[in-house]
Design a protein that fits this description.
Layout: H1 2-22, E1 24-35, E2 38-44, E3 47-53, E4 56-66, E5 70-79, E6 83-86, E7 92-108, E8 114-133, E9 136-158, E10 161-174, E11 192-206
Antiparallel strand pairs: 1-4, 1-11, 2-3, 3-6, 4-5, 5-7, 7-8, 8-9, 9-10, 10-11
């Protein structure tokens, strides 16, 4: 049994060598848009507060290692997305920044010059918000949490160049107390799962 197990390990290593040889590194610049997620309505005392992340531009970079059917990649994308808040009898403005640091697995459905793919992963979701309003000094709110994403797209491979388009849904679970907004109240947000959808394209280089 030990000899059989040893032989299987050796054959596994031998069979893995061609796969490593076929693997390609890839780095891609990303540009697109982020469709803001809903922050719902929340009752804070007698005040009804509604909010949603604004749609905004998105920029980033992805770097990974691709074999014919699968891939692993790390990515950073950023959006200077504001937030729309509706607060009765109050003039409130919010500036926002959204950062996603994520690791993903890719499944290349059809390897070749035109390659559709699906992807899923997890990582750090970092929200920075500054609230300003009449008779209120700027108030910073920051949130760093583990989040998830999933999506899909298509890659067009032209020699060492890759043209890529995709859609991803970034999901972050938030609840009361995650943000610290003393000027408006710490219970702006209900316990919920926030969806921010990325629609992006990019040009990459394989190495």
């Amino acid at each position: 049994m030990r000899k059989i197990a040893l032989m299987m390990c050796v054959w596994g290593m031998v069979l893995a060598i061609p796969s490593v040889g076929l693997a390609k590194g890839e780095i891609t610049g990303v540009i697109g848009g982020l469709i803001g997620g809903d922050l719902n309505n929340v009752l804070a005392g007698n005040a009804s507060i509604g909010g949603a992340f604004d749609n905004g531009p998105l920029y980033g970079v992805r770097i990974g290692w691709i074999i014919p059917l699968f891939g692993l990649e790390a990515s950073y994308v950023y959006s200077p997305s504001g937030v729309s808040l509706s607060v009765p009898n109050a003039n409130v403005g919010v500036n926002g920044k959204v950062h996603y640091f994520e690791g993903n697995a890719l499944w290349i459905i059809i390897p070749g010059p035109v390659s559709p793919f699906v992807t899923a992963g997890a990582g750090l979701h970092w929200y920075e918000l500054d609230i300003t309003g009449a008779n209120a000094s700027p108030d910073a709110g920051e949130l760093k949490k583990l989040g998830f994403n999933f999506g899909g797209g298509i890659k067009i491979n032209i020699k060492a160049i890759t043209i890529r388009g995709e859609v991803r849904d970034h999901l972050t679970k938030i609840g009361p107390g995650d943000f610290n907004f003393s000027s408006v109240g710490s219970e702006i947000f209900e316990d919920q799962r926030l969806h921010n959808v990325e629609i992006s394209g990019g040009v990459g280089f394989r190495f």
